[in-house]
Amino acid sequence: MKSCYIVGAADFAPARFKPAADDLVIAADAGILHLARLGVKPGLILGDFDSLGHVPDFPDVEVCPVRKDDTDSMIAARRAVERGYGRLLFFGCLGGRRLDHTIANLQTLLWVSGRGAEGFLAGEGCCLTVLAPGEAISFDRRYRGDFSVFCLGEDARGVTERGLSYTLEGASLTAGFPLGVSNSFTGESALVSVEAGSLLLYWQDDPSLPLPERERLK
Asked: Which of 24, 42, 47, 68 has the fewest Cβ atoms surrounding its Cβ within 10 A?
């Protein structure tokens, strides 16, 4: 699966930042500063450049208006999906001084999921993704630490969690009560699935392990 690495200007955790030769790297506004420190040349730079303060001198730059509906990372996600990338990995998109942009990036994960692609938000010691209706996701048994799941939007029905400290079978989760917070891995392979509605998954990440694999429910 082709991957696109999208780099924003917030706190940057580089441990999972390992683009292959045929992957696309997009710098969203001042995310280019993170890439410059790593010595990585992006395939595309885009944004309104209010954070960077100037339009960079680069062959492939998309200058966006300041007054717009999309965040810079949302525009980057659109470009990745338009180019056919099936896995989007967001870096520099959690934390920082703008909590509203972190929330916007969580919603961007939901948008990516709705387009049939995988989205991951990588942070310092954590990772997040959205599970679409009719999907299951499985974690390597070597994962350790915290795990949480939250309902996004309308009620999530047919929620199953196996191989975790607290298990569920065909449960319902709502956006109005955080029932799925503060679970944990147990040393077994873990699986989460949802039949209807969408789930936001958070876990204590180990960058030495593969990202979890997802599949459609049969």
From this structure: 68
The Cα–Cα gap between 102 and 93 comes to 6
User: For the domain that residue 153 is a member of, what is the CATH number?
Assistant: 3.40.50.10240
Helix (H) or strand (E) holding 80: helix 72-82
Same domain, 118 and 142: no
Same domain (yes/no): 136, 120:
no
Q: Are residues 171 and 107 in the same domain?
A: no
Convert the pLDDT of each residue in 87-143 to its tens digit: 999 999 998 788 999 999 999 999 999 999 999 999 999 999 999 999 999 999 999
Please give the structure tokens belonging to residue 120: 């991951």
| Number of domains making up the chain | 2
What CA–CA distances, in Å, run from 85 to 64, 79, 131, 149?
A: 21, 9, 18, 26
Decide: pTM greater than 0.85. yes
Same domain, 75 and 135: no
Query: Is 95 within 8 Å of 121 (Cβ atoms)?
Result: no
User: Among candidates 116, 103, 118, 216, which has minimal Cα distance to 152?
Assistant: 103
Structural domain containing residue 200: 130-216
Q: How does the average pLDDT of the chain come out, rounded?
A: 95
Q: Do both 30 and 120 map to the same domain?
A: yes
Summarised one tens digit per residue, pLDDT across range 12-49 is 999 999 999 999 999 999 999 999 999 999 999 999 88
